[in-house]
Each structure stands twice: as C-alpha cells, then as structure tokens.
Amino acid sequence: MEPITIVIAVVVVGIIGLLCAVMLTIASKFMAVEVDERIPMVRECLPGANCGACGFAGCDGYAAALVEDPDLAVNLCVPGGATAADSIGKVLGRAAGDVAKQVAEVRCSGTCEATSVKMDYKGLESCAAAKLLFGGTGKCVYGCIGLGDCAQVCPVGAIHINGGLARVDASVCIGCGLCAKTCPNHVIAIRPADAHMVVDCNSHQKGAGTRRSCSAGCIGCRLCEKNCHTGAITVTDNLASIDYAKCDGCGKCIEVCKAGCLVALNITKAEVVNN
Amino acid sequence: MKELIAIVMAAVLVNNYVLAQFLGICPFLGVSKKLDQAAGMSVAVIFVMLLATAVTYPIQYFVLNPNGLGYLQTIVFILVIAALVQLVEIILKKYIPALHASLGVYLPLITTNCAVLGVCISNVDNYLTATGGFGGGFVQAMFNSLGSGLGFLLAMVLFSGVRSRVDKCKCPECFKGMPITLISAAIVSVSFMGFAGIVENLLG
Question: What is the pLDDT of residue A98?
C-alpha cells in the first residue's frame, strides 16, 4: 500500500466532515428559532402533571400558548389552582382570575347491594373491554362498571373501587377530567368542589326499567324538581340534574326524594358544605 | 415496474429489517408501547431512510469508489447521516413547526440508528454494482429504502398491538416487563418467516 492512499483517505473524509460542519453552522445561524424566554418561566409556575385539564397538550403546550396569546386566561390550570394563576400573572403582567376548584364525581350508586350483575365476566380487567360485551357486566347499562379504568388513568390516585363502584376522594382529586374522558359509560362528571348536592345516578331508562336493574337509581318522578324553590333541579330523559349555580343547598329535594319515591334513595348523597 | 414492486415487497415482508434482519431493535422495543408513538417513529424512520439513501448512494458512487475508498463507507455514512438529520431538524423547526412537533422527538433518536445505516450499506452492496450505471441502481436503491421503511412501520404497528395485549395479560411475575416483550418479539419474528419465498412465487 502506498502512503499516498492514507493521505487521500484522510483528505476525503476530512473534506466531507468539513462540508457537513459548515452546512450545519450556516443552517443553525440563519434558521435559528428564537424561543421566548418567558415560556420556560411560565412553565416553572405550572405543576407539571400534564393532565390536559387546561385544554392544551400538557403543561408545555399551555405555557407556550399563554405567552403567544395575550387574551388567554391564566387561570385554566386546575391542579395548580390560584397559586399557579397568581405566579403566571406575575410573570406575564396580567391579572389572575379566580380558579374554582373542581372535582370528579362518579354519578352512580349501584353498589353490590343496590344492583347486581347480569353475567359472570371473566374477560380483560377493563371497563372498555367489558362495555363491548352486551353493554357491560351490570344489569344497568348506564352505571359504573367498576373495573377501574378511571382509577388507572387518575394521575393522583384519587379513585378507588369500593363494592363494585368507583369512588372519588374529593380531597385528593385535582379535577383534571381524565377519568371523565376515559369512562366508557360517561358516568363520571366534573362538578364544583363546593356543590351542595349531586345526583348519583346516570340512568336514562324509564322509572320502571331503572327500578328493575337497580334499587338506588333515579326513576325520574320529578318530585325534586317540583319541590325545588330555586329551580335548580330539572328532570330530563328520566334523570334529575342540578344547576350548581342556582342550588342553595336547602336540602329539600333530598327529603322529598326519600319520602316521595318508593325506591329508598334516588338523590343519594347530600354534601352540604358550610359556606 | 414489476421489479420495483418486487423490491418493495421483499423489503417489507421477506427481508424486514426489524423482524428478519434484527436491525433497529432499540426503537422497536423502546417506542412500541403506544400505537401513535410507534407510527410517529416509523414515519420519521421512512423519511430518514429515503433521505440517507439519496445522499449516501451518490457519495459512494462519485466519491468513494473512484478513489478506492469503499472500505470507509461505514464511517463516512455515519458522519453524513448524522449531519443530515441535524440539518433536517433545524429546517423543520424553522419552517414546519407542526411537523417538527410530531416528528422532532424521534429524529435525534434515528441519527445513528443501525437500521438506517444498514439500509444505506445494503443498497450500495446490492444495487451499485448490479446495473453498472448510476440511474437504474439509484432508483432501485430508493425503492428498497422505501420498502425497508414501510417494513419498519409494519413491524412497529403490529408489535405495538401485540404489546398492548401482552400488557393486559397476567403473565408470571418473573416474565413481566422486558422478558415477555422479548419473547413476544421473537414469536412475531418467527411469524414473518412464513413470508419466505412469497415474492419470488408471486412476481417471479
């Protein structure tokens, strides 16, 4: 082998490397994207749960959108709450609004005592899979299936399965709404944390049908609607729903529901919060 | 035309880079947990494979071979591919931010991916000498890269499906995680042996 071949090899590879280096240097000079230095500062204020409650793809997405759009509200982060809104407001020089704390609510009372199963399910331990099989394992196709898809997606571990029914620990819940999106039956709703009462049933069946499948379900008798002095309760499609803005927590509906229905409870849980 | 289809089919099914030649196993095991990630990574791989072949093939033909430097192909190809992917990332970031956001995470992962390098080298070995001239061999090489990329996509999508089922199953404690994943990868790979000879019989 002649020594000249070594020189040729070194020169060729050196030139190729040099060309690549020059190309990359020029490209990074001319095509540099300026990153607003406020984006990482805003990102610091956010909790980093990447839950998506703000409606953006994670905390980074919300931070970038906040800096770009001057009209975007700074209080969309539910887990971060007022602290995050305040600190973002300081970074961007905007006033922070109030953040209403929200929590998830499993709108079902179908415990093992109140309702029962229609099949001996041995398939995948997933509500989504069970839902594909004749609409779920339980007699009520609207209720909680209880296999814990919601508990799996919950980023803070606020959901536990008790007696075949998912329950949310409101003190731990950050109100991100991931469980509500995951639930194949759409049983889970997001409500204000200081709501006075909730309708813990999701069944749109007619009264008789609901009673056949569950002893705790709403039969749509409208007694609560008639007795509500603020007009907060309305019954649509055989199911009561509450307008939380109007409800003053008098508790009348809970009384008539117990007395007026043959079923023992259909508005099952009153959370009267002392304001 | 028939020849080009045969090249693509062979690259996808018979000589699948992941499942038959065992190149690019790192992203195959690392990014196959979720379908959308697997698809994103595969699209990035197809893109980089095409680009890398388009650049390395002429380099081999016009620079290395005339100077008798064919033995330097590995080091030169790695250098060129890495620089190229960096350049593409810079350009995407500037002009197509949306594509950069979806593809950008995977691009740096592929810079020194052995599947990409493997495609470039096998293109040079198989097509450069076979036809003599530059044009014909180059087109064949590009189609081989496309097929290899599609094969990678197929393997990733199939395996992400397999993996989502495996994750839900109750397997023995000692097999949980990577061991059962490797076993499933082996079974998927064995299933691809069934494609041996299919292209010759279909199009030959």
Answer: 63
Q: Are residues A109 and A64 in the same domain?
A: no
Q: How many CB pairs under 8 A join A and B?
A: 48
Cβ neighbours of B95 in A, within 8 Å: 31
Of A150, A165, A193, which one is at a domain's C-terminal end? A193
Question: Are residues A109 and A187 both part of a single domain?
Answer: yes
Nearest residue on chain B to A124, judged by CA atoms? Answer: B168
Domain tally, chain A: 3
How do residues B56-66 score in pLDDT, each as one tens digit?
A: 999 888 888 88
For residue A96, pLDDT beyond 60: yes
Find the mean pLDDT for residues B107-124: 84
- Report which residue type is found at A85: A
Q: Which of B72, B87, B95 shows the shortest C-beta gap to A23?
A: B87
Computed over its alpha carbons, how large is the radius of gyration of chain A?
Answer: 28
Which uninterrupted H or E stretch holds B2? helix B2-9
pTM: 0.59
Domain assignment of residue B108, given as a range: 2-198
Final residue of a structural domain among A193, A211, A241 = A193
Residue A206 placed within a domain: yes
Q: By residue range, what is the domain housing residue A60?
A: 38-92
Tell me how many degrees the CA angle B153-B157-B163 measures, rounded to the nearest 5.
140
Distance from C-alpha of B198 to C-alpha of B194, rounded to nearest angstrom: 8
Residues 6+ apart with CB under 8 A from A50: A58, A59, A155
Which pLDDT tens digit goes with each residue over B134-158? 777 888 899 999 999 999 999 999 9
Split at pLDDT 50, 70, 90, the class of A221 is confident
Q: Which residues contact B175 (CB under 8 A, 6 or more apart)?
A: B183
Q: Is residue B203 part of a domain?
A: no
Helix (H) or strand (E) holding B22: none
Mark whether A147 and A83 lie in a shared domain.
no
Residue A189 to residues A138, A142, A175, B65, B192, Cα–Cα distance (Å): 20, 13, 10, 68, 46
Note whether A165 and A226 are same-domain residues. Answer: no
